[in-house]
Structures are given as structure tokens and as C-alpha cells.
Amino acid sequence: MATRVQAAPFDLAAELAGFGQGPKVGAVVTFTGVVRDDSGTLRHMEIEHYPGMTERAIAAIEAEAAARWNLVDSLIVHRYGKLAPGEAIMMVATAAPHRGDAFAAAEYLMDYLKSRAPFWKKEFTAEGAEWVAAKSDDESALTRW
Amino acid sequence: MATRVQAAPFDLAAELAGFGQGPKVGAVVTFTGVVRDDSGTLRHMEIEHYPGMTERAIAAIEAEAAARWNLVDSLIVHRYGKLAPGEAIMMVATAAPHRGDAFAAAEYLMDYLKSRAPFWKKEFTAEGAEWVAAKSDDESALTRW
Amino acid sequence: MIDVLYFAWVRERIGLPKERLATSAATVAELVAELRSREDRYAAAFADLDALRVALDQELSSFDAPLAGVREVAFFPPMTGG
Amino acid sequence: MIDVLYFAWVRERIGLPKERLATSAATVAELVAELRSREDRYAAAFADLDALRVALDQELSSFDAPLAGVREVAFFPPMTGG
Prior knowledge:
The complex is a heterotetramer, with two copies of chain A (145 residues) and two copies of chain C (82 residues).
Chain A: E1 2-6, H1 12-16, E2 27-34, E3 42-49, H2 53-68, E4 73-79, E5 81-83, E6 88-96, H3 99-116, E7 119-125, E8 128-131, H4 136-140
Parallel strand pairs in A: 1-4
Antiparallel strand pairs in A: 2-6, 3-5, 3-7, 4-6, 7-8
Chain C: E1 2-6, H1 8-14, E2 18-21, H2 28-38, H3 40-45, E3 53-56, E4 59-61, E5 72-76
Parallel strand pairs in C: 1-5
Antiparallel strand pairs in C: 1-2, 3-4, 3-5
């Protein structure tokens, strides 16, 4: 289990080198969140976070996933600061003996990171800047766990 | 959408370079299946397949996923032949605007690949060789879709 | 003439991956009955149809499917990919 | 003395990321009431508590939670990570 919160870009390939090794691992799932630009007007995004609480909140979510599913390893990397369209915002990786655990844990981690880790996104376009509103879908996604 | 069936190893990082680009992509999910060695006695695994049908079956599964979910891209790579413990057997990648579609499509592709693509695994240990039996769990996993 | 393919332990029990047959079987089940009656190794391979799957021209099918127009029949155990 | 932190648009409306306060508030709600009465920018930031979340010593909490022993209170909008 590892967690990193950083401004610098990360490289998925480098993160996965050495991740989820060992004879018990049969399934590795990764999720990468990318800065989308639906309208074609996004200049960049800025992600603010709450240093200290962020790491604690993510570690707690990761520990809960490890308690619920049969995982061999998990990794969460989340960026903050300025990000351009197409840049990776964050990644989650899970390694498990079986695919069901790897998928479920990755989805759980994502659902909780969305709504329980203290990050806030602000989008900058030609028209100005706007904080991204939380989606009620994201909150209700938690009820399935 | 792309499908490859090959004996050669693949490199997840190389496969993902250029995958799921474009302003509409907000979420990329990957699954990698790895040769597990629970007992510590596995020498290697051999995967047999049905050339011709394999590609057709995978393409049909991929087309069905593209029809069911809002995907920007998907990729399936599946190996056959001799594989050592720890080697990657296959991978699936999905790219979508939103994480729900990317996760659901990746799980759907995996569930159908397990039970509907013509691959058969044989495990070789010091004691001999044995065909891997299909799991009833894998068959019943299809009922959720 | 029809191509008949065998995979995994079906191939091993029968001892060959593929053969070309002349058959008058109207359905897969009739073809299976013909094969069973040929030799013990076929009877062994087709002992339990619940443990077998069949594809007609590379599409999964069923044992009661008709063979009319089919060029390639494949028999194999449940698949274990992924 | 208690550290009070603001994030995202709460920080922007109040105009600072952090301040140190002396307060006799017994609960988060009482602290919010104190802050609201200070200046318009606080009143604006705390106009709708449904749009706000609170953390006490870096754990998500609720507005009716007691402040006894708490060293750090943070106010922010619903989180949008991932």
C-alpha cells in the first residue's frame, strides 16, 4: 500500500514497474483520471488540496479497501496544482489474486477519492475561472459500498 | 477498438502509449491478467486457442461493449503459448469520458473473455500437467450484464 | 465434407487437432453419435456433453443445431481465457 | 486558540487561507455564527451550510460537533478529487 500526493506529473509505466509482483497476484487493475476538455475551451485546471488531511484521508480509504478485499497491493498517486487538458490527474492501481477483488477495490478507491479526499478542481477558460461543482452522482455512488 | 492475439509478450506501457488520447477522455481503466502460482509448484502454463474464432469472438465482445457504454477506445491483447509464472497473460484497456463507463466496460470485457473467447489453459507442475477447469463463478458472472 | 476441430483435452483424448469427415448427420448431436461409435477414444472424448462446447463456423452453438451448410465444427471444453 | 483553514471558494470569499482565532464557541455551528457576524465576506462564505463541509483536526465532521480539544478547523466545499 502506498499513497503519494504531488504536483509533478507521474508516469503510469514507471509507477507500475515493480507494482503487484509476487506469486499470488493474478489481476492488476489501474485507473487513470485525465483532464477532459468537453467544450474545447479549457485552458487549464488547478487542483487545490489540504496538505496533511489529504494524505490521511487517502491512507484511510486505502486501508478500508485492504480490509474489505483480498488485495496484495494498492497504489494511489494524486496530483495538485496546474494541469493542462489531456494530463493525468491521478491514478489508482490494485493487485489481487482474482479480478473481482482488483476491480471492486479500484472502483471503491475511486468513489471515495472523488467525494472524501480533500481536493478541489477549478477550471480556467477564456471566459474566466470556475470551481467544479461536486456531482450528486458521486455522492450517491458511495451508497453501493 | 483493437484486438491482438499473439504468442509474444506485450508491454503494458507501450500498449498504453497513444491509447485513449483526445479531449473527450477522462478515464482510462486497464486490467492485466497474470500467471499466478498459488502453490509455488507451477513450472509454466500453456494457452491453446482457436485461431480465427478467437479474433472473431473477441471483436464481437468488444463491439458489444462499445454499443453498451460510452467508450472512446478499447484494446484487448491476449497471448497464447507458453507462459511462466508472473508473466502477463492478457490485458484490456478502456477509455471513456467518465469512470463508470470505463470500469463497467473493462469488467464486461473480462467476464466475456473468460467464458466466451476460445482459450484453454494448461498448468505444468512437477507432478504433471492439468487443464484448468472453467469456474462456475465465471459463467455466472455473465448474468449480471 | 466437413472439417472437425478438437481443442484442449478433447484434442488430447482423440489424438488429433483436426480431421475432414464425410457425414450424413443432420445435427451436431447426430455427428457426436457417429463419432462416439467410431472408436473408444472418441467415445471417451464425448462421454459427457455437459463438459463440452461446440462452435459451428467459429460461432458458439448448441448440440441440437443443424449442420446444413456448416463447413467447420469445433469441439472443446468450457473456455478458460482471461 | 484555534487554527481555522479555508479552501477553494470559501478561501476566495473570505480572502485568506488560514487564521488563528480565540473563540469561546462550543460547537462548529457556534463558531460559524461568530464568523458570520464578523464581516460580510464571512457571511457570504457561510451563507449556505449545505454547500459546506467541515473537518476537525483533519477528519471530516459535522456542524453540530463539539470544538473541545480541537486545534484545527477547516471549512471547504464538497470535494471534487479523482
